[in-house]
Amino acid sequence: MVDPDEQNHERSCCPIACALDHLGDKWTLLIIRDLLLGKKRYQEFLGSPEQIATNILANRLKKLEAAGFLTQQIYQKNPVRYEYVLTKKGEDLRQVLQALVEWGKTYYPGTEVFKPYG
């Protein structure tokens, strides 16, 4: 169920525009992909082949948390370190990414589907 307080649309009431307001840059869905494949920690995201810059990764993780796609959990106390876990909202993107995988395999022959992490 969607919270009625979340009905403040940034650009438009179009559901595609609303989704793109949170997911439409070139890095966000790749971070979601990595979370769906089992990555949880900052350094694990940095090991992805697309080589996201640290400042962009930190920014996108904060934005994804603020938008309700993921949460932080402490896994080390001294120094404090976090791992990231998808919420239901984030996990529900699995089918969307799977559709993109199938579309990409059709129109970009020779691409690879990444295996789960770990």
TrEMBL record:
Q: Which residues form a coiled coil?
A: none
What residue stretches are annotated with the HTH hxlR-type domain? 14-112
Q: Which UniProt keywords apply?
A: DNA-binding, Transcription, Transcription regulation
Q: Which domain of life is it from?
A: Bacteria
Which Pfam families did the record assign? HxlR (PF01638)
In terms of SUPFAM superfamilies, this protein maps to: Winged helix' DNA-binding domain
GO terms (molecular function) for this protein are: DNA binding
Q: Which PANTHER family match?
A: HTH-TYPE TRANSCRIPTIONAL REGULATOR YODB, TRANSCRIPTIONAL REGULATOR, MARR FAMILY
User: What name appears for this protein in its UniProt entry?
Assistant: HxlR family transcriptional regulator
- State the organism named in the record: Nitrosomonas ureae
- Read off the lineage from the record: Bacteria, Pseudomonadati, Pseudomonadota, Betaproteobacteria, Nitrosomonadales
